[in-house]
Design goal:
Layout lengths: L14 H15 L11 H8 L3 H13 L3 E4 L3 E4 L4 H12 L5 H23 L2 H15 L5 H17 L4 H9 L1 H15 L3 H19 L3 H27 L7
Antiparallel strand pairs: 1-2
Helix pairs in contact: 1-3, 4-8, 5-7, 5-9, 5-11, 6-7, 6-10, 7-9, 10-11
Length: 249
């Protein structure tokens, strides 16, 4: 039986906020973990000083986020967070922001650069084989921007997975809808330009080889060089859009 400590500043918190605070704090303290059953509705409502309708609504919200599983007749159970559900919620929060894909790219760089350094130490042979397979798919889809974007995303996702960091993986998966859109849009901009496409393959291959050699400095350097290709493309496209058009005689 969990010992319930009511959250501080109770007067300033709504009933739903008290439920969310309790759930968050118990997870952080390690008192709750996946598979645990929460107190019965009546007991939990009494312990948190909220009405049962408010408690039910708060639990339904947690269930929509994939954080609890409400089983009628059995109780409410803690679930492992579903990053895809959290990702949809995060995407809704971020989508209205201006230039969100460019901003998400900065988050992606931060995550992947740390992930690849960890992967140089932790990646198993199976991880490396998986990344190599994604690289083959990437090379085989250069003429299809949609499939190519998906393969590109899968390659980078495999690197983050091989880092062995649950936190990096959860954050990366949470922004995956925006990342996928970014990969596909960048491919649509470049797939008809052979020079860029060829450089894209070389950049990904160098990232993989640096990781396979387990050289964290070289791996991060290769990864940052790969990201710079996209930055250069966007800069050139911007310049081209505003340059005066040449008149043909």
């Amino acid at each position: 039986m969990l010992e319930i400590t009511r959250p501080g500043s109770e007067e300033s918190q709504s009933g739903a906020a008290r439920v969310f605070t309790f759930f968050r704090d118990r997870l952080l303290a390690g008192d709750l973990k996946a598979g645990d059953r929460l107190l019965a509705e009546r007991e939990l409502a009494l312990a948190l000083n909220v009405s049962r309708p408010v408690l039910r609504e708060a639990l339904r919200s947690l269930a929509m986020l994939g954080l609890v599983d409400i089983q009628h007749g059995r109780g409410t159970f803690v679930r492992s967070a579903d990053a895809s559900v959290l990702g949809q919620a995060l995407t809704l929060c971020l989508a209205p922001e201006p230039d969100i894909l460019d901003d998400v790219l900065q988050a992606r760089i931060a995550i992947e650069c740390q992930a690849i350094r960890l992967a140089c130490e932790r990646a198993s042979e199976r991880d490396l084989q998986a990344i190599a397979g994604k690289l083959d798919l990437l090379v085989g889809s250069l003429d299809n921007p949609d499939k190519g974007g998906e393969a590109d995303y899968a390659f980078h996702l495999a690197i983050v997975r091989s880092s062995g960091s649950p936190s990096l993986m959860k954050v990366y998966e949470a922004i995956s809808p925006l990342l996928m859109r970014s990969h596909i849009e960048r491919r649509r901009e470049t797939f008809r330009e052979p020079a860029i496409t060829s450089g894209l393959v070389d950049a990904h291959r160098e990232v993989f080889l640096s990781l396979a050699r387990r050289d964290p400095d070289a791996a991060e350097r290769s990864l940052r060089g790969h990201f710079a290709i996209g930055d250069d493309l966007r800069r050139r496209n911007l310049i081209s859009a505003y340059e005066p058009k040449r008149k043909h005689p």
